[in-house]
Structures are given as structure tokens and as C-alpha cells.
Write a structure and sequence with these properties.
Layout (H helix, E strand, L loop, with lengths): L2 H20 L2 H25 L7 H4 L3 E4 L5 E5 L14 H11 L11 H13 L9 H9 L7 H17 L2 H11 L9 H9 L8 H10 L3 H4 L6 H21 L4 H6 L18 H16 L3 H4 L4 E5 L3 H14 L15 E9 L5 E5 L24 H10 L15 E3 L25 E3 H7 L2 H11 L1 H11 L21 H12 L3 E3 L4 E6 L11 E4 L3 H17 L3 H5 L10 E6 L5 E7 L3 E9 L5 E2 L5 E2 L21 H13 L105
Parallel strand pairs: 1-3
Antiparallel strand pairs: 1-2, 3-9, 4-5, 4-13, 6-7, 8-10, 11-12, 12-13, 14-15
Helix pairs in contact: 4-10, 4-12, 6-7, 6-8, 10-12, 16-24, 17-19, 17-20, 17-22, 18-22, 19-20
Amino acid sequence: MGRADARRAQRRAAKSGGIRRLFTWRKLLGTAFGVVLLGMGAFAVLYMLVDVPEGNAQAKLQSNVYKYADGSLLARTGEVNREIVSLSEVPKEVQDTFVAAENKSFYDDHGVDFKGTARGLINTLSGKGKQGGSTITQQYVKNYYLEQDQTVTRKLKELVISLKVDQKRSKKEILAGYINTSYYGRGAYGIQAAAQAYYGVDAKDLDVSQGAYLAALLQAPSQYDWAVAGPKGKALVKERWAYTLNNMVGEGWLDPAKRQKLTFPVPRDPKPLNGTAGQKGYIVDMARQAVLKQLGISGEQFDLGGWTITVNIDKKKQQQLEKSVETKLIDKLDTKKRKLDQDIQAGAVSVDRKTGAVLALYGGRGQNEHWISNAGRKDYQPASTFKPVILAAALDQKSKTQDGEQITANTRYDGTSKRPVVGSDRYFAPENEDDQNYGQVTVQTAMNKSINSAFAQMGVDVGMDKVMETAGKLGMDVEGLQAVPAQTLGSMGASPLEMAGIYATFDNHGKKVTPQIVKSAVHQGDEPLKMPDAIGEQVISRQAADSVTSVLTGVVDDGTARGSVRNAEGLSDRDIAGKTGTSDDNKSAWFTGYTPDLVTSVGLFGEAAFDRTGDDGKKIKKNAQVTLQGAGGGGRVNGGGFPAEIWADYMGHSVGKASKFDLDTDMGAAVSPPPESHSASPSTSASKDPTPSGEPSDDTPSSEPPPSSEAPPSSPPASPSGDPSSEPPPGPSTEPDPSATIELPDLSGDNRPDNSDER
């Protein structure tokens, strides 16, 4: 080794030795010990400086105030729904469920989980959100003494106060405080309120299975509430319920044999909060959900109070809608003599087409009797009220028939019942109402009479993918739905709120209307919450929307809604467009219609009021979809019956000064003269003569002219289906020549025939 190498070796040795001298084990241990002492000293100082404060959680809870559009009081909610009970009033097994679920070492620890707290501090510092592993004592301290913010300062205070509370209070006192201050969902604070909210009993009457559910709830009250939980939430809460009981067995608090016999205790349906009886509960709940969605916060945070929410509900229109449902439906039902009448559920929504404001809604018989709002439920078929969407797609897309003819209100289709559609890769041959054949009919008359076979073919001509795309643009929830011909019958689910928005978009000349229940929402001391715009962009052309409106006037003047709507008090001189609908097996019936300013959708739904055995011997569960057939002592419940009558009575008393539709169209029943009719397309014709033997064909004029004195009151001339004042021919009806006229039967009052509507 040369001198240079030696010098380099010496330098390396010196450097290595310096590092070893700098980082010896003794120094490292000394540094660590110093840090620990420093931390202990800091904690000792913090322990001396932080006292147990006065409880303040209850003082911070406030009401939420709801007001009508005019500023008058609608309801107050969010008051502290809590009744303090002593631990002696809670069964010992129920007490143990909370310990088993949250903190098995509760009776032996000193009030703090240092590992969990350290993990929480690290998560907070790293921005990973809420901590886990808090003891019951820590959670009680957080609920009763501290704010809910997730900061390092708050967590350190929680640690110190928890140690002091554990020293000053007995475990029984701490457990009592914990179960009395915790939030369980449904506006319930404390175990007594929770027992009433979920099981309708006092805390002293809870069993161990019910207690385990309430204990499981505390982890995620909104997600685990059985009434609103999705499949995942239900699976998770059942898993945590079982985890709680199994922990009790492991700790020797529950007999294993008894555990094996326990079944999951499904809670009862929620009951409305104070001040929300009748329709108020449905209005408040819809407004609350709208604000929560916009804020992106939990119900627990919202229910702490401080909000003033003004809804768009017009008090007079709301009262009138309730009265119309009462007089036109409820008063005609006899739930004592006809148990079937207990199955009838009504829902309705009224919307201002210019602003999108929800001016009135009917959610059901009150949340005490029926928790789910029928105004917003989407589990029943809209049936033929979907047909205008098909026409809107055809007109907006400038679609053509199979033979290349552009579709208009006067295009002719084959109205033969069970006629297979042409041009689809799926076989579909829908039946018309009562299996009736109509021969060659114009689109106008197909809408008036709600002919399934004609609109099934139109849907295929347009392309079902384009039909469903248009439905989505108009406001229907089509996610996950197949674009198949069967959808032309309105076989998907929809709500009155949804259908009111779609028809409001027609009424608004194709500019999207998304109904809004909330007018304004302000939290105390904050800026007003910005709510979504109700009026959106142009989603279909004005010509298409106005043409649909023009065609829908024919349904009222000459079609399935004439008897109930056109002849109703206060509506004889009004411009009205609308559509009836009756679903398969008569499980739902609809009328959705509008004037130039106001849109209202009314739906009737068959929902089993109790468990029973059907006529076919099959079990019918409570809340299952059932037929409306026979309700009110009649036969089939059609859209032109109760729904149209409710609609007409409400609208007749609610619309203001008469106004006219301002339509940019050259087609449909509201246009005079009607456009020249097109000949039938071969691809939409039946393979054999659909006209029954001995009856006039579609192109055969009526042998007798209509009497002019019986013409229906309407500002525009009669639609292509003609003057409805003459007698209809016997047997299946046929489509007349546009110059010929026939009369539809009077459907007013108690003269509703069983087959007055469509599927």
C-alpha cells in the first residue's frame, strides 16, 4: 500500500469513527428517552391545564324551520328528541350490547385507547379522515363535552378529559351518559328515543336482539337504518349485529344456546317527526333530502339544526290538491266493506313549467300510515304516459317509418292488436286494451285511443336506443334500462315527480324542467345555499315539443281523458294537453296533463295493505304490488277515471286566467286545418285485413254527418279523430277518414266503463 492509499484509509476510518461517535446506541437511546420525557412533560402540562368542561352538546342542538313559499310556517323539526333514562331502566343484556359492540375492555380500561388515539392523530395529521378505536368513555366525552371537529387539539383534549372523567365518574355513569347522548338516526338522540323510533317500545322493554341492532346503528346511523338502507347497508348492519352478539357470548354475557335462537329484529317503518303530520311530512322529507344532496353532508349533521328552509309549495294549491284527492278518491273508497280499497295509494305533483317550482304534492295518507312518499316513488310503471316520449323522440330525430316516410302526427300505422313489430331483432307483439283492433290509424288517433301496437312499431322505427336516450334527456331515470321494444308500453318505473318534469319540458317548448321543492335554504349565520337550476338547456327541439303538446290536446278533446277532463268544471274553455295510462294487471293508473302554465301528474298505485292469500292461492306480502281492479266498487281503474278526475278537480280550481298554448308546429289536434294525411306504409300494415268482417274500413266515411249542436267545447277545431258527439259504431272502433266524425262515450261522473282506458 502506498502513502496515498494509507492516507485514504485513514480518512475513511476517521469518517466512520465520527459517524459512530455521532450515532452511538447510547446517544440514540438517550435521544429517544428525552423525546419521551418531553412528551410526558408536555402531556403533564396539558393534563393540568385542561379541565372537564360543562356539558354543552344539548345546548347546541336547534330546530330546523320549514316555511311555505309565502313565508308562513310549514313545520319545525330537529328539536332535541331525547329523554334521559337511568341505567337501571335499561336491561343489563341491552347495556352489554353497547359494550360488546364498541369497547369490550370498557369495564377494565382507564377511559382511553392510546393505540386508537395515536392512530387517530396520525390519520388526522395525514388527512386520512376520522379516527377509529375510541373507547366508550372517549365517545361520551366527544358527544357531551366537545365539538365534533376532527383536529389534533380536539383529540388531545378528548384524551385528557377522558382520563379525568374515568377517574371522577363510575363506569355505570359513563355508560349511561354514552347511551343517552349518542345519535341513532331518525332524529333520535339517546336510547329511549331510539327504542321508540325503531321498535315503538320504551328502553326498559328492549330485548337483547333489539339492543344489539341499536348498538350496531351507532357506527353509521344513516347507512344502517333498515328502512332506507340499500343491500350493502343491510348486509353490513346484520354483520355488525351478529358481531355484537358473538362478542357477548365470548365475554360470558350471553348464553350460547340463547344466541343461536336469536333472529335479526327488523325495525318498524319510521314515523314522522313532530309537526309533520299529513302531507307536511312528505314535503319536509323531500326538502330535507334536496338540501342534504346539495350539501353532501349526513343527516346527523343536518339534524343538529339551525336551518331555515323555504319550499316552493303554494299553500292554497297544496290545500286544493289535498281536497281534490279527498273528494274524488278517498271519499269514494270504503275500506271497511271493501278491503281492496285499503290497497289504493295516490301520489301527485304539480309544477310551474316556467320556474320548475313544485307548487303542490300529495305523498299518501300521511307518514303515520304510509312512510314512503307516493309523489317520489319510482317502482310503478308509467304505462301509456310514456307514449308522448316515443313521439317526441320520433319528431326530434326526424325519424322515418320502415318504408322511409317521415313520422308526423298524421302518419298512419297499423293498429291491429298483437301485431308483431317490423324491423326489430326481438319478437314483440303487444296487445291493445281489451285486445281491440283499430285498422289503419293516424298517429294522432293512436295517441287519442292509446293504441299499443302503433307505438310499439313507432319505437322500433325511431330506434329504441334513441327513444331511451330522449327519455333520459327529458328527465327520466333510464340508467341500467334495456333499449327494447317492450319499453314502449312504459314498463320501466317512474314517479309522479319525474313524469311532471317530463311533461313540463314539453310545456316549456323543449327546455329541460327539473322540478325543485326548495326555494331557499339558509343555515344560521351563513350565506344562502345555492340550489340547482330548475330550468336547463334545450333538450329537444321546440317544434318537436310543441308538436307533442298539439297531439296531446286530442287526448283531452277526443280521447281517453275527454269525459273526466274536458267536461270538468272550470276547464271547458281551457287549452289542455295530457295523457292517460294504465299498466299491466292494472297495478297503476295515471293522468299527467298540463295547461300553458301548470303541469300536474297524478298516479294511483296498488300496494297490499296487509299480508294475505290471493284468489289464486298465492301469498301476498304487505307492500307488494297488487291490482287496482275493483277499487271503489267498480271494475278496472283506468287513467281516465280516478286519476283524471283528481287532476281535473285540482286544476279547475288552481289555474289562473285562461291562456292559449303558443305552439310552433303545423301538426296535431290543436292545429287547424290538420295536415294532409299520408298513406299507410306497407311495412307498418298487417299481413291480413285487420278490419272485422262487416265493419267499415278506416277510409270509409261515416254514413251520417255529426250533429253540430253537440260539438265539444274547444277553441281549436276538432282533431283528426273527429267530432266526439256522434254515436260510436258497434264492435271494435276503427280509424275514420279525417273528414268523418264519431263520438266517444261520456266518461264523466259514475258512468266510467270498465274499458275506458288503455294499458
